[in-house]
UniProtKB/TrEMBL annotation, chain A:
Gene3D superfamilies: Cupredoxins - blue copper proteins, YVTN repeat-like/Quinoprotein amine dehydrogenase. This is Nitrous oxide reductase apoprotein. One of its GO terms (molecular function) is copper ion binding. Its main location: other. It is found in: Cell envelope.
TrEMBL record, chain B:
The chain crosses the membrane at residues 7-28, 80-98, 105-126, 166-186. This is Copper chaperone NosL. The keyword Transmembrane applies. Keywords: Membrane, Transmembrane, Transmembrane helix. The keyword Membrane applies.
């Protein structure tokens, strides 16, 4: 069945495509026997277990960061073991540690639309130095409510989130340039801009005339990593899908795939699939930055949030930005070009040499590879075929280097091993295809289960890939694991690419939906990992650094509890004088200065999560008691032999009661 | 005493300065959940550890068994000892300058006595902390005391404790050794000198 399918696929790609769209998964299912063994053994290397076994107590060779997609978080896995090390909350509230629930972290999720407690995180990108991943920060996009986040890899915490104005569906985002000069973010959904920082109230029938896209250039502080939206380019109203920066000779450029160049405002699955060719947009970011600096940029009012976590107080603060600069391509000659690319292209990936731009057209029968040097020549020769909004469109052949023939069905993304090979994920034919950059021929195929989206090679998107492993991220798992009802895990598959032939080593279920991932040698990150926070440097305004400073004070109907936690008690652990309807703020400082001793804090009936406090830090849990009584609170993270005893009580009296504020631990203290 | 004896005596007294640069004694603790270990460093003038939080971490662990918290303030010795060391350094330099053999001997003997008293004092403290336990402690093991070893290793519940002299003590050892050598070598020169006198 399988070989018949392959034969058929070779003679009639188009026909096979149609079949596969409808029945790809069914065909895959048919290809092997029923039950547990379905497609499991195919391609699995006989020494796979040894290759991925990381003995107890040993560390993995790589950190990998898999986006969580619709959970809005980032998962950290060790490779080659596939062990889940951490989930870093980024765009979504995380009850597990109080991110987005604690008073300190709420501001991280503020936007111009108010508090947005969720997003769809697609693409992690590691910061870079000289075109190589440097292990300092991880950037990530929020797709739904356009935002770009920065995770600090010394603490594995989200430290900054910037909202992107004039954008909708922040999908081709965030792409760092070779030295993090800019992180670039493009909009997937074009929208009618009102040029006042919002979208205009217009009819969808006016899509073709009124809708525009935007590409944002976020400047990154070279030392601290702090982001700042420098300027935007307002571009034609296509859908901007994915992007990637050039390298070496092309390092001044960034490339974006586009679809819906038909500018259809409805039923895009048909409307955006009419043109045989859409475009690959090429933007010279260095020239754009120069134009912006030289005064070509105009300014428009805007309204967007920029949220930063202070590293000493662990408090997030929002700043509202009220204007944004923008460039129009028609005013900026030489800044932007369009390359015709087959039908609704998805991935754009530039090979390590910077010469080849590989476009994976999900609906195309071949993989076109464009040449950067030919593009430079075409600019000189003015080998254009008209223009759109003042942006020159190249003749297809003038920039095309080659087309990879018969690569498979549904090519989506390509990464490189630095040894002259490219690897492309095939969503529809559900395989990884290895092909040579020298003669553009396919040399190996590896089936993956099922319907692979992105693939990732550590550094495979940089100019120095580490071509040892490849991770395929699959959208469909069906029978691959024990069933868990209708909602199933997505999967990642680890493939050894060190040899001529790919070897399947491991697959592991993942959290939510990993779209893209990044990986880096562990020794670039692990030595910088912070063990705990220095209590002496804690600048939280309500931190108490010793038990004798703990206090409970009333400020109107706000009761402020400045509490300490240390193995195995909280101070104070008996509190009285709180009244129904008061806002109680528990500012809990973890006094520990030891490795791996977080304390948690939760109070009965709080309409809130817990908060998890790292050693040396202060976190605040807000609680509004609704009824009188005595409410226990306790440490939620098993901290010590007497963790179960780490608890206390708070007494709530009716409104207007004359019970004074008192607090104590162990021996009774006088009233405050 | 020849010039080099005097220099050697100077070095002997100055080597006591190591006590201000390095701890005298280190107590190492290891437990299943402390793979990285915990160290307490005893100096001539303070108590510290391998990290800022070490002392606090020792006290957190010790409070479960009812041991009194260890604070530098609790030890009068830590206030007195630096002066004693400075006294020995100054006295040693004076001895070197005066070049009197008998003073060298007195200095060494006094230093050895002080060292011995210091170790005895240290032992008494270990004993006091290890046995004087709060009867209301959460963890009580009948018959169990927690006296860390003065020298060598010992298992205390889940902890392996190892106690060893550190670089600072080397300063005392060096001072005793060098001053001893000065005493020994200067004897032979005096001997020769008197012989010569007799012969003359």
């Amino acid at each position: 069945m399988k070989s018949l399918f392959n034969k058929f696929k070779n003679v009639a790609p188009a026909a096979a495509f149609i079949m596969a769209v409808g029945g790809g998964a069914v065909l895959q299912g048919c290809s092997s026997g029923p039950g547990e063994g379905s497609a499991t053994a195919a391609g699995v290397s006989s020494d796979a277990a040894q290759a991925v076994y990381v003995a107890p107590g040993k560390h993995d060779e790589y950190y990998s960061f898999l986006s969580g997609g619709f959970n809005g978080q980032m998962s950290v896995y060790g490779l080659p073991s596939g062990r889940l090390l951490k989930i870093i909350p980024v765009f979504t509230q995380h009850g597990e540690n109080g991110y987005g629930y604690s008073e300190e972290s709420k501001a991280m999720l503020m936007t111009s639309h108010g508090f947005v407690p969720w997003d769809d995180l697609h693409h992690p990108k590691l910061s870079r130095t000289n075109g190589m991943t440097d292990g300092r920060w991880l950037f990530a996009n929020g797709n739904n409510t356009p935002r770009v986040a920065r995770v600090d890899l010394t603490t594995f915490e989200t430290v900054e989130i910037m909202e992107i104005p004039n954008s909708a569906g922040n999908h081709c985002s965030p792409y760092p340039t070779d030295n993090n000069e800019y992180v670039i973010a493009g909009t997937r959904f074009s929208v009618p801009l009102d040029m006042k920082g919002g979208t205009a109230d217009v009819s969808m029938n006016e899509y073709a005339d009124k809708f525009r896209g935007s590409i944002s250039f976020i400047k990154v502080d070279q030392d601290k990593g702090d982001m700042e939206l420098d300027f935007q380019i307002l571009v034609p109203g296509f859908d901007y899908d994915l992007a990637n920066g050039g390298k070496g000779p092309s390092s001044d450029w960034v490339f974006f795939t586009t679809y819906n160049t038909e500018r259809s405002g409805t039923l895009k699955e048909l409307g955006a699939s009419q043109n045989d060719r859409d475009y690959l947009a090429a933007v010279n970011w260095k020239l754009a930055a120069k134009y912006a600096a030289e005064g070509k940029a105009k300014e428009m009012p805007a309204y967007y949030y920029h949220n930063k976590m202070d590293k000493d107080s662990h408090m997030a603060k929002s700043t509202i930005k009220k204007s944004v600069r923008y460039l129009l391509p028609e005013d900026c000659p030489g800044m932007m070009y369009l390359i015709p690319a087959p039908k609704s292209p998805h991935g754009i990936d530039v090979d390590p040499s910077g010469e080849h731009m590989v476009v994976s057209g999900k609906l195309a029968a071949t993989i076109p590879v464009f040449s950067f040097s030919k593009m430079q020549q075409a600019i000189k020769d003015k080998a254009f075929d008209g223009e759109i909004n003042g942006i020159p469109v190249f003749k297809y052949e003038s920039v095309l280097k080659a087309e990879v023939p018969e690569p498979g069905l549904g090519p989506l993304h390509t990464e490189f091993d630095g040894k002259g090979n490219a690897y492309t994920s095939m969503f529809v034919s559900s395989e990884i295809v290895k092909w040579k950059l020298s003669d553009f021929t396919v040399v190996d195929r590896m089936p993956v289960y099922y319907s692979v989206g992105h693939l990732m090679i550590p550094g495979g998107d940089t100019h120095t890939p580490d071509g040892k492993y490849l991770v395929a991220m699959n959208k469909i798992t069906k029978d691959r694991y024990l069933p868990t009802g209708p909602e199933l895990a997505h999967s990642a598959q680890l493939i050894d690419i060190s040899g001529e032939k790919m070897r399947m080593l491991l697959d592991f279920p993942t959290v939510a939906e990993p779209h893209y991932a990044q990986a880096i040698k562990a020794d670039r990150v692990a030595p910088n990992s912070v063990k705990f926070y220095d209590l002496a440097k804690n600048t939280h305004p309500h931190a108490v650094k010793k038990e004798s400073d703990a206090s409970v004070t009333r400020e109107g109907n706000v009761v402020r509890v400045k509490m300490t936690a240390i193995r195995s008690h909280m101070t104070p652990d008996n509190i009285e004088g709180v009244q129904v309807g008061d806002t109680v703020l528990f500012h809990v400082t973890n006094l520990e200065q030891d490795w791996d001793v977080p304390h948690g804090f939760a109070v009965m009936g709080a309409n809130n999560a817990e908060t998890l406090i790292m050693p040396g830090a202060t976190q605040t849990l807000r609680w509004v008691p609704k009824k009188a009584g005595v409410f226990p609170f306790y440490c939620t993270d098993f901290c010590s032999a007497l963790h179960q005893e780490m608890q206390g009580y708070i007494r709530v009296s009716p409104k207007g009661s004359n019970v004074p504020i008192t607090f104590s631990t162990g021996k009774k203290k006088p009233a405050a | 005493m020849k010039a080099y004896h005097k220099v050697l005596m100077m070095i002997a007294s100055l080597s006591l300065g190591l006590l201000f640069l390095f701890p005298m004694w280190k107590i190492y603790l290891q437990a299943p959940q402390y793979p990285e270990g915990l160290e307490m460093h005893i100096w001539v003038n303070k108590i510290s550890g391998d990290t800022e939080g070490s002392l606090q971490n020792f006290n957190i662990l010790n409070h479960y068994i009812g041991m009194e918290p260890i604070h530098a303030d609790s030890f009068a010795e830590l206030k007195i000892m630096p002066y004693i060391v400075i006294f020995f350094i100054v006295a040693g330099i004076l001895v070197a300058l005066l070049g009197k053999r008998k003073l060298v001997l007195s200095w060494v003997v006094l230093l050895m006595i002080s060292g011995a008293v210091g170790i005895a004092d240290f032992y008494m403290w270990l004993n006091k902390f290890g046995t004087n336990l709060d009867p209301s402690a959460p963890i009580k093991v009948p018959g169990m005391t927690y006296v860390p070893p003065l020298l060598g290793s010992k298992t205390l519940l889940n902890f392996d404790a190892l106690s060893l002299p550190a670089m600072g003590s080397l300063g005392i050892g060096l001072a005793i050794l060098l001053a001893g050598l000065v005493y020994f070598f200067s004897r032979s020169t005096v001997h020769v000198k008197t012989k010569r006198k007799v012969m003359a």
